[in-house]
């Protein structure tokens, strides 16, 4: 058994090594992944954005960090030189789709950039900079599903400011707790009621409202109903805890996304308490 | 034009997704609902045929890469063999809309499976249990109560290395020891069950 595992591991290592390519990779999933940066030069003590730009073939999708009722979150792991620190992966607003009857899915079509802020240590010698590498894996589906993975790398001394970052920040949700939101939020219900309701009072009619629960091992989200009348949106979500599962059940994080009549999408992260503790 | 389509899709997703999810499936503690399905040899098999026994239900789609990984590793077959001596019944259910008796018989033969594959092209049993992913695992104890629902293990990407936790194995050990299942529900992972539209 251990011999078989060693052979398997060696084979996988060889295959992974073959997949390593400078900055871009593609597999049979028809998803192209390349490393992108928002700067031309890394400077001591600065912060740069480094991301993976996924180009997804027409009709296929990959997944948000909560894939929905099935699927698998896209994963990006950066390997950085000593002293560099990567912040959390930032997820642009997802779209919702039906994976199969009764099974919602959340993810991305066409293209998306999953990026993180990288803190560059002070007192680095730019000429000594090595390469940055990203281990990327995804599940791509279009009726059938195909797992994809790649290791992509780029030399930190050869970065280029990628145009995808010109509009990227506008695709991110507004963080929870931010002031001057276009709505006021009230939350009723919780785990003991089996339903949590987010009430959003807008200053006018908001447009089409969507709601995306954040990933959770411990919480199961069931039926979701969204109704908007005038300037009031009511989002009812069935919620229950998974018995014995790991993770917190004290709070539910989620994302509210509005699409206006002219097609503009904006999103806000919401946090709601699920218990009275 | 694209944004009009997008708005229409949002409305459609909201209209289709939500009612179908309502109260779908079973919960831990429920009495396992009865079903009768044809197996890959064409025989009718009912859950009630195994009254008093511990039953594992495994949702299958041979086209799903997560299922393929577990069948290459022998996860399901080894687990079924490990507990066969304890009288465990392993029933694999395929709710993939396009896989008929012959397709399931072929998969069973190719993989030399000792257990039954039940053919659920209509998706009736899948919806009855609320199966969402392949694989999606359920354990029914000897009293006919659902005692585990969720993932096969804690390694959705298959790259965790050892040790992984096989939730089904842990739960079966607890059931066989007469204990209640500690981790009774986990988030299932895999492809969506390809239900008939």
Q: What's the N-to-C terminus distance of chain A?
A: 49 Å
Strand content of chain A: over 45%
Q: Please, how many helices of chain B? A: 6
Shape of chain A: globular
Order of helices and strands of chain B: HEEEHHEHEHEEEHE
DSSP E strands of chain B, number: 9
CATH-defined architecture of the largest domain in chain A:
Sandwich
As residue ranges, the low-confidence spans of chain B are: 15-23
CATH class of chain B: Alpha Beta
Shape of chain B: globular
Radius of gyration of chain B from CA coordinates: 17 Å
Mean pLDDT of chain B: 91
User: What is the quaternary state of this protein?
Assistant: heterodimer
How much β-strand is present in the residues of chain B?
A: 15-25%
Strand order of the largest sheet of chain B: 2-1-5-4-3-7-8
Q: What is the CATH superfamily of the largest domain in chain A?
A: Thiol:disulfide interchange protein DsbD, N-terminal domain
* Structural domain tally of chain B: 1
Structural class of chain B: alpha+beta
Percent of residues in helices of chain B: 25-40%
Order of strands side by side in the largest beta sheet of chain A? Answer: 2-3-4-10-7
InterPro entries (chain A): DsbDN (IPR028250)
Protein name (chain A): Thiol:disulfide interchange protein DsbD N-terminal domain-containing protein
Keywords (chain A): Signal
GO molecular function (chain B): antioxidant activity; oxidoreductase activity
Keywords:
A: mainly beta; Immunoglobulin-like; 2 domains; 4-stranded mixed β-sheet; globular; B: alpha+beta; Glutaredoxin; 7-stranded mixed β-sheet
């Amino acid at each position: 058994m251990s011999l078989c595992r060693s052979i398997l591991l060696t084979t996988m290592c060889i295959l992974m090594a073959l997949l390593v390519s400078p900055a871009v990779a593609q597999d049979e999933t028809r998803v192209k992944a390349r490393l992108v940066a928002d700067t031309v030069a890394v400077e001591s003590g600065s912060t740069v954005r480094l991301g993976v730009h996924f180009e997804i073939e027409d009709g296929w999708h990959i997944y948000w960090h909560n894939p929905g009722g099935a699927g698998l979150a896209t994963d990006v792991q950066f390997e950085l030189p000593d002293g560099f620190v990567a912040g959390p992966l930032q997820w642009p607003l997802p779209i919702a789709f039906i994976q199969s009857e009764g099974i919602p899915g959340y993810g991305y079509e066409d293209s998306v950039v999953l990026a993180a802020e990288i803190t560059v240590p002070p007192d680095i010698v730019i000429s000594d900079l090595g390469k940055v590498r990203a281990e990327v894996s995804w599940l791509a589906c279009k009726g059938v599903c195909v797992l994809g993975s790649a290791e992509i790398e780029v030399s930190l001394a050869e970065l280029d400011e990628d145009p995808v970052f010109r509009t990227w920040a506008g695709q991110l949700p507004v963080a929870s707790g931010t002031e001057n939101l276009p709505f006021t939020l009230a939350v009723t219900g919780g785990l003991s009621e089996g339903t949590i309701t987010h009430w959003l009072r807008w200053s006018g009619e908001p447009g089409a409202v969507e709601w995306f629960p954040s990933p959770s091992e411990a919480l199961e989200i069931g039926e979701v109903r969204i109704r908007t009348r005038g300037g009031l949106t009511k989002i009812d979500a069935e919620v229950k805890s998974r018995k014995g599962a790991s993770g917190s059940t004290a709070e539910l994080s989620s994302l509210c996304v509005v699409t206006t009549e002219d097609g503009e999408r904006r999103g806000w992260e919401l946090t709601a308490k699920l218990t009275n503790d | 034009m694209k944004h009009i389509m997008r708005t229409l899709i949002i409305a459609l997703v909201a209209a289709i997704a939500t009612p179908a999810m309502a109260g779908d499936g079973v919960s831990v503690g429920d009495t396992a609902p009865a079903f009768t399905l044809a197996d890959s040899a064409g025989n009718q098999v009912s859950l009630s045929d195994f009254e008093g026994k511990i039953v594992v239900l495994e949702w299958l789609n041979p086209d799903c890469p997560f299922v393929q990984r577990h069948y290459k590793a022998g996860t399901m077959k080894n687990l079924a063999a490990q507990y066969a001596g304890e009288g465990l019944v392993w029933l694999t259910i395929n709710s993939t809309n396009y896989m008929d008796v012959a397709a399931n018989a072929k998969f069973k033969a190719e993989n030399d499976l000792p257990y039954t594959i039940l053919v659920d092209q209509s998706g009736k049993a899948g919806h009855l249990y609320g199966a969402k992913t392949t694989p999606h695992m359920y354990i029914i104890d000897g009293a006919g109560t659902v005692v585990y629902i969720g993932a096969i293990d804690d390694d959705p990407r298959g790259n965790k290395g050892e040790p992984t936790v096989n939730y089904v194995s842990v739960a079966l050990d607890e059931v066989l020891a007469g204990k209640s299942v500690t981790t009774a529900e986990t988030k299932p992972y895999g492809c969506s069950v390809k239900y008939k539209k």
